[in-house]
Amino acid sequence: EEPAPGRRGEWERGDEGPAERGPGAAFHMFVLMEDLLDKLKLLSYEEEALRRHNMRPLSRHYFALPTNPGEQFFMFCTLAAWLISKAGRPFEQPQEYDDPNAVISNVLSELRSF
């Protein structure tokens, strides 16, 4: 069954690509990343998370563009671990060469327990 188009060519199901949602949909990820960065700055992520691990601050579009997946994954895991700890739950900081599946499994398990 083919999904029925809604207003202005939008699809009613959530499985459509950016072209079906309108011309601005391709830039939505950039807006989300800028919002994320603003929220991280409010939580002082540069002082509390990055300096502890000797990492550089994120650019406005760090996670919006796939530049270095390994580095981006490790940054994501570092921030996830820091945010879980900031929420009052003890969480071990993942290491760069840990098994990615195990790290994500631990993060998701901790988030489910919230």
TrEMBL record:
Primary subcellular site in the record, as a coarse category: other
Keyword list, A-Z: Cell projection, Cilium
TM spans (from-to): none
Gene Ontology cellular-component annotations: cilium; Golgi apparatus; intraciliary transport particle B; microtubule organizing center
The protein, known as: Intraflagellar transport protein 57 homolog
Sequence ranges of Basic and acidic residues compositional bias: 1-19
Lineage of producing organism: Eukaryota, Metazoa, Chordata, Craniata, Vertebrata
Family: Belongs to the IFT57 family.
One of the GO biological process terms: non-motile cilium assembly
Localization: Cell projection, Cilium
PANTHER family on file: IFT57/HIPPI, INTRAFLAGELLAR TRANSPORT PROTEIN 57 HOMOLOG
Entries under Pfam families matching the protein: IFT57 (PF10498)
Superkingdom, natural source: Eukaryota
Annotated organism of origin: Sylvietta virens (Green crombec)
InterPro entries assigned: Intra-flagellar_transport_57
Region feature Disordered, mapped onto this chain: 1-23
Keyword Mitochondrion on entry: no
